[in-house]
Structures are given as C-alpha cells and as structure tokens.
C-alpha cells in the first residue's frame, strides 16, 4: 500500500466534508420548513394541533438521534424499497431538526410580552393580523441567534449518519483510518474540519445575541 | 342616554371573585376617575370593558355594541373604545408613526397615505409631530405614552380607557401625559381612567368612582367624594394617599 | 406493505436489553456527576478564576462544543493510544461523556454565576470570606438553582447522545439493540423497542433531576 501523506488524508476528508455540508443544509432548511408548519399548529387555537406537536417534540427530543436514524433507515426499508442511506439520513435529520426549531421558535413567540397582544387586541386586530404585524416580526428578530446556534447541532448531528452508512466526513474518517492506521492524525483532522464548520456559526450566534441584548437595553 | 352601560358585572379568577356586581352608566363626554386600593378590581373592570378579560355575569355595552366574547363582536366594540396601558405597549419594531398607522391600515383598511396623514395629525395633537420616525426605544416614557394615546385616537374611538397610564412614568414626566388627557377631556372625549393622581381626578373629572373589594363603594362628583367621603373605607383611603 | 411485525424475540433477548439499560444508566450517572463537577470547576475558572487559566478553559469549551460527540469518542478511543493513553470501551465512553458535559455545563453554569448580583460578592467579601469561600458558600448554590432546568436538559441530551458509544463497542442499550437485530434480523423492531426504552429513560431522568433540584434547592433563593 502507498504511503499516505497528511495532505492526502486532508484532501480525502475535505472531499467527504462536502457531503456533510450538503446534508446539513438540506436538514436545516427542510427542518425549518417543517418546524414552521409545526409552530403554527402548536401556537394555534385548535385542540389537536398543539397536542400533536407536543407529542412530536417529546418523541424527537426524548430519543437519541441515532435511534431515529436507525428507525428511518429500517422503517423506510419496510416499505419494500431499497433505501439509500442519504435518504434515511435526510428524512431523520429533517424531522429531528423540525422538533428542535419549532420549540426554539415557540419560546420566541412566547417571549413577546403579553402587553403586545393586549395592545393589538385593543386596537381591534384579529389573531392573524396580530401574528403577522406585531408578534412575528418581533419574535423573528429574537429567534435569529438561537436558530443560528442550532445549526451547529445540525452539523454535528450529521456525524451520526455515518453509522447508517452515509459517506460524509465522519465515515471518511473511519475509512481513511482503516487505510492509514493513523487514527490520531485522522480523527484530529476530522475534528478540526468540524470545528471550522461549526465555530463560525457558534460565534456569529453569540455576536447576534449580544447585539440583540444591547438593542434591548436601549429601552 | 348612556354611552357605556355596565350592568351587574361579575368576574372571577378561580375562586377569587374580583368584581362582585358592578353597575356604572357613563354619559357621552363624561370623564370618570376610578380610584381604590390595588386589588380592589379597578384595573380588571377596565380590562373587561375592552374585552381583554371575559366577564362571568352581567353585561357591558358601548354605544349599543354588546360585549360578547367572539371575534366579530369584540372587534366592533374595540373600534369604539380605545385603551391606553400602564406599560405603553408600543410596538418596539415600528416607528412612532408606524405604530399609529398600523391598526388603521390592517383593521380599518385605511389607504396608506390617509393613515399616514392621520398619524401625523394625531402625533401633532399629542405634541410629537417631530417624532414620527423615532423608534419607541428612542423616546422617553412620557413620549411613548403620548404616542400610545395618538395610536388609540387614530382609530377614532368614542371613548378611551386609561389604565394607570402615569404609574410607570418618572414623576417629572407625569404632567406632560396628564396635559394631553386634560385636553382630550376638554374636547369632549369620554374617558374612563384608573388613576392614582388625586389632584387630577379632582380637577378634571366629572365623576369619581371609589372601588373597594370588587364593588363600587362610593360614586359621585369629585367635590363630594373628596371633600365629604361618606364611608370609613374612603376616608381611610384618602387619608392614606393625601 | 406486507411486513408483519414480530416481537417474539423479546422473550429470549430481554436480558440483553436489561444489561444494556444498566450500562446506559451507569454511564449517565458517572458522566452526569463528574461532568457537572467538571462544569462547575470550569465555570469558576472562566468567570472568576485567574486570568492565565481562562483562555485554556475557553479553548476546551469551544473545541468540545463545536465538534461531534462521535468524533470526540473516536479520538479518545482510537486516537489517544498513539500518545500511550489506552482505555477500555467503558472508560473511554465515560471519559468522553464527562468532558462533553463538562464543556456544555461550563457555559450553562457560568451564565448562572454571572447573573449573581454583585452585592452578593461584596457581602461575602465584607464578611471576611475569601473569593473561593464566597463562591463555594454564597454564589454557587443560587447560581446552580438559576440554571438547573437548562443543566437538567443538557444531562438528558448527554444521556441520549450516549447511544453513540455503541460504536466503540461499549455494551450499552444501543449496542444491545444492534446485537439483537444481528441475531434476529428484526432490525426495525429491535430499534423501536430500544427507542421506547430511551424515551422512558429520558422522561425518568428528567423527573429524577427535577426531584433532585427540589432536594438540593429546598428554598427559593434565586429569583
């Protein structure tokens, strides 16, 4: 077998990291869309919607993401189709992200002071108008930092998809380790790449949060 | 004919009966001060008139519009009655002008230009024409409260409910808000205000309602109520606050 | 779909599951206790400790919070032996969980410490207490109480994350499910049962932590 230079290792890992980035994007955006739909069901006035979303969130936040991946992989397999790992990974991560995002956003909507609801009520606005013009514009603003922060969890969450056989950064790490027998270097580099993906997101979340707090203190 | 009719209104929070049968009729152009200790039910009464709380018994009607807890009736009622809050409750993401324009546009479907003109007029009326583009967090408490008044006025209500509108203000800012209210009163606006400003109540109001333990304990012209309180509770309350 | 679910294997394999549950609970207990202790130490260092120490702690916290637990686990189990640090599966799993919770716990507890009114530090100092004594006796308990719900959620997250330790052959609940599905070819059912058990464990752990909070903080000292 040929000698692997550190550059060879890094190059292979970086190529695989593309799939980590792609899966993260798909999961985050898909999760955001599903999460938004769940949010409206959760804060709506119906009876079934909120109960369903509560149970949904409890289920996805109360069980390991790894189990959700297994269940998606083998569960979709039961439908008789041969499920590619990327599909199971995408489905599971979207549903998982949706649960967390909908909870984050619900918190933001509920953080809007009761007086905002009362003032807009007293001006004659209906529920949809209040949401559209008064509550959501404010909730969206405070939702940005935690939402960006959660994207870090999504990137890290994609690592588990290696276990059901999706070839992304972590899987590539294992494959390269098996070829080079240099786990220290390889996993060190894998960690470094994850760090380079995640740290800017974490940092910007913190900065956004700080900006928001300063803006709030001006009152 | 009365403008606001409050008849046998009862309100409970759990086991706690906060309003125990309230009867007040308000004639057009009257300015009513509601005074009493905290917990006497005065704020709750005001919030009931605007439908922010549902009443358990009795009835409230404003210019013939009955208070019923469905969206259609509530909207009709709220178009007639504006409300000003202790904490101003301006929309922090909108400028002062936009605060005043928003409900005109989304509730009354007023065209933008018209709503803007109305907003300018109303802000000028409260002395803040120059603050049209300022955000709430750039305004003092007194200015915010005046914007809130302009916002309510822009809906052209026939009565205004003021819920301790100067209680959250620094003492030096109270007078600028009261001056605006006094002006409204002199222009014939019907006002119901929960207040701790006894001097203002005495000088400006046509009647004073003293609430005690969920009931209207005394009601009358300010000179009677303040100079000649009949019940020991009111005597004690006035002694306490003077 | 003409698949029939079959849970008959439970009759044979339940002891495997029970053993796996035991390991998962044990990992969570050790990881939770030591992880919170590490978190407190780091939070102290970052908020009140000597200034030369702060960047190191900050670096550790950022490194752990911005890399996947699975990779931390692999690095510890497969990578560290290159430095002569060889650990068994369970030790490595425990170690990874402790440093993981330590980093998250640090940030959560630090927020609690920083919310302490400055008068509390001043009162401690004016009574002649040292900085460490003030921290230990005056600041820490109200700080923990303030952030107990957030810390509890993080402990639950670490418990759920521990499913990954099956990948270094630590014989936890997920490992048990893997084992059972490899023998019975009932993959969906095996993972489904394991998922339900995890859910029960998460709910139970959350309740236990709430109860622990009531015991640790019987008086409402924090706002």
Automatic annotation (TrEMBL), chain A:
<dbReference type="InterPro" id="IPR010065">
    <property type="entry name" value="AA_ABC_transptr_permease_3TM"/>
</dbReference>
<feature type="transmembrane region" description="Helical">
    <location>
        <begin position="184"/>
        <end position="202"/>
    </location>
</feature>
<dbReference type="InterPro" id="IPR000515">
    <property type="entry name" value="MetI-like"/>
</dbReference>
<keyword id="KW-0813">Transport</keyword>
<feature type="domain" description="ABC transmembrane type-1">
    <location>
        <begin position="17"/>
        <end position="205"/>
    </location>
</feature>
<protein>
    <submittedName>
        <fullName>Polar amino acid transport system permease protein</fullName>
    </submittedName>
</protein>
<feature type="transmembrane region" description="Helical">
    <location>
        <begin position="55"/>
        <end position="79"/>
    </location>
</feature>
<keyword id="KW-0472">Membrane</keyword>
<dbReference type="InterPro" id="IPR035906">
    <property type="entry name" value="MetI-like_sf"/>
</dbReference>
<comment type="similarity">
    <text>Belongs to the binding-protein-dependent transport system permease family. HisMQ subfamily.</text>
</comment>
<feature type="transmembrane region" description="Helical">
    <location>
        <begin position="85"/>
        <end position="105"/>
    </location>
</feature>
<feature type="transmembrane region" description="Helical">
    <location>
        <begin position="20"/>
        <end position="43"/>
    </location>
</feature>
<keyword id="KW-1133">Transmembrane helix</keyword>
<keyword id="KW-1003">Cell membrane</keyword>
<keyword id="KW-0812">Transmembrane</keyword>
UniProtKB/TrEMBL annotation, chain B:
<protein>
    <submittedName>
        <fullName>Polar amino acid transport system ATP-binding protein</fullName>
    </submittedName>
</protein>
<dbReference type="InterPro" id="IPR030679">
    <property type="entry name" value="ABC_ATPase_HisP-typ"/>
</dbReference>
<keyword id="KW-0547">Nucleotide-binding</keyword>
<feature type="domain" description="ABC transporter">
    <location>
        <begin position="4"/>
        <end position="238"/>
    </location>
</feature>
<keyword id="KW-1003">Cell membrane</keyword>
<dbReference type="Pfam" id="PF00005">
    <property type="entry name" value="ABC_tran"/>
</dbReference>
<keyword id="KW-0472">Membrane</keyword>
<dbReference type="InterPro" id="IPR027417">
    <property type="entry name" value="P-loop_NTPase"/>
</dbReference>
<comment type="similarity">
    <text>Belongs to the ABC transporter superfamily.</text>
</comment>
<dbReference type="InterPro" id="IPR003439">
    <property type="entry name" value="ABC_transporter-like_ATP-bd"/>
</dbReference>
<dbReference type="InterPro" id="IPR017871">
    <property type="entry name" value="ABC_transporter-like_CS"/>
</dbReference>
<dbReference type="InterPro" id="IPR050086">
    <property type="entry name" value="MetN_ABC_transporter-like"/>
</dbReference>
<keyword id="KW-0029">Amino-acid transport</keyword>
<dbReference type="InterPro" id="IPR003593">
    <property type="entry name" value="AAA+_ATPase"/>
</dbReference>
<keyword id="KW-0067">ATP-binding</keyword>
Automatic annotation (TrEMBL), chain C:
<comment type="similarity">
    <text>Belongs to the binding-protein-dependent transport system permease family. HisMQ subfamily.</text>
</comment>
<feature type="transmembrane region" description="Helical">
    <location>
        <begin position="69"/>
        <end position="88"/>
    </location>
</feature>
<feature type="transmembrane region" description="Helical">
    <location>
        <begin position="190"/>
        <end position="209"/>
    </location>
</feature>
<feature type="domain" description="ABC transmembrane type-1">
    <location>
        <begin position="21"/>
        <end position="209"/>
    </location>
</feature>
<dbReference type="Pfam" id="PF00528">
    <property type="entry name" value="BPD_transp_1"/>
</dbReference>
<keyword id="KW-0812">Transmembrane</keyword>
<dbReference type="InterPro" id="IPR010065">
    <property type="entry name" value="AA_ABC_transptr_permease_3TM"/>
</dbReference>
<feature type="transmembrane region" description="Helical">
    <location>
        <begin position="147"/>
        <end position="169"/>
    </location>
</feature>
<dbReference type="InterPro" id="IPR000515">
    <property type="entry name" value="MetI-like"/>
</dbReference>
<keyword id="KW-1003">Cell membrane</keyword>
<keyword id="KW-0472">Membrane</keyword>
<dbReference type="InterPro" id="IPR035906">
    <property type="entry name" value="MetI-like_sf"/>
</dbReference>
<feature type="transmembrane region" description="Helical">
    <location>
        <begin position="20"/>
        <end position="48"/>
    </location>
</feature>
<dbReference type="InterPro" id="IPR043429">
    <property type="entry name" value="ArtM/GltK/GlnP/TcyL/YhdX-like"/>
</dbReference>
<keyword id="KW-0813">Transport</keyword>
